[in-house]
Amino acid sequence: MYNGVALLAGLELCVMGPLHMLKLYFISYLIFVMLLDCVTYLHHHGREDKLP
Questions:
Q1: I need a labelling partner for 46 at 20 to 30 A (CA). Which of 2, 19, 23, 33 fits?
Q2: Hey, is 28 helix, strand or coil?
Q3: pLDDT at 23
Q4: Is Transmembrane included in the keywords of this UniProt record (predicted)?
């Protein structure tokens, strides 16, 4: 399975170029992780301050 993923990533790198792959995958992943961190923080903090 990993050989196929590595092959697809390598071919895409050759076709699209490293800058386009960076913009397409890394920036999207970074935004997703930031949103996930924000939601997790909001779920686990501030319980004492909530109104009844």
A1: 33
A2: helix
A3: 84
A4: yes
Domain interval for residue 10: 2-44
Count how many domains the chain has. Answer: 1
34-52 confidence digits (pLDDT tens): 999 999 988 888 666 665 5
**pLDDT given for residue 9 in this prediction:** 83
In angstroms, the CA 9 to CA 14 distance is 9
3-state SS assignment for residue 48: coil
| C-alpha 28, offset from chain centre | 5
Is 24 a member of any domain? yes
Q: With respect to residue 49, please indicate whether it lies within any of the assigned structural domains.
A: no
